[in-house]
Amino acid sequence: MRKFIASALLMSFVACSAAPALAREENPFITSREINLIELLAPPPANESEKTRFELAEVIAVQSTRTPEMVARAQADSAENIWRFADVMGVKFKPEQLPLFTKFFQRVVDSEGAVVDTYKDVWKRPRPYLYSEMVKPVVKLSHSGSYPSGHATAGTLMGIVLSNMVPEKRAEIMARAAEYANNRVVGGVHYRSDIEAGRITGTVIAARLQTRDDFNQAFEAAKSELRGVLELGPEPVASK
């Protein structure tokens, strides 16, 4: 087992949060300037803690039982976009039919990175495969910190926003979002606490976005387009 010493200082947060968004975050609705994860989340478990050893054992246990189908699913879920929900939404759920929806959800996904990436650099938690050579990841490796999980954040965020558009499918959408997040453990690139922190973060981002006029205007346009393409009719009153 390789040992790492956590080197991030909380003072670096000020400089990080003031920095411009990363290049891939072209047009986020919200950034780390507006959501302080240090105030929201507990720090990740220490590298040599009992909690990390327990979580590492889970990653290795999942690794020993994952099937080829699980591997394929985890690899496909490495893509960080709304189209991973297509198996829930049906055959009409395609980007070429949903231009407004596509543009809207790209901004939603960009918001995840614009919030989370700053704090990954603060905490710098080593990923499981860096901490132990016993971990054999089966998805694309990342050089960013492990905590919180960006995929779990994005999956939860996308799931909440999408289920608010299509409340008829809320249970299925949120189950898919949970699977999407868990596949980061299956893939060997995250610990359970990374996933849990990502779910909290995704939920908070979703709540904060709903207070913004620019988000709500784009949301309504995207929802109308989506429900029209899916032929769902008016939104059920009971979902309000």
Automatic annotation (TrEMBL):
GO molecular function: acid phosphatase activity
The protein's Enzyme Commission number: 3.1.3.2
UniProt keyword annotation of Nucleotidyltransferase present: no
Keyword Hydrolase: yes
One cellular-component annotation, GO: outer membrane-bounded periplasmic space
Domain spans labelled Phosphatidic acid phosphatase type 2/haloperoxidase: 102-210
Signal peptide: 1-23
Keyword annotations of the record: Hydrolase, Signal
Stored Gene3D superfamilies: Phosphatidic acid phosphatase type 2/haloperoxidase
SUPFAM superfamilies, alphabetized: Acid phosphatase/Vanadium-dependent haloperoxidase (SSF48317)
Catalytic activity: a phosphate monoester + H2O = an alcohol + phosphate
SMART domains: acidPPc
CDD domains: PAP2_acid_phosphatase
Family: Belongs to the class A bacterial acid phosphatase family.
Name listed for the protein in its UniProt record: Acid phosphatase
Native source species: Collimonas arenae
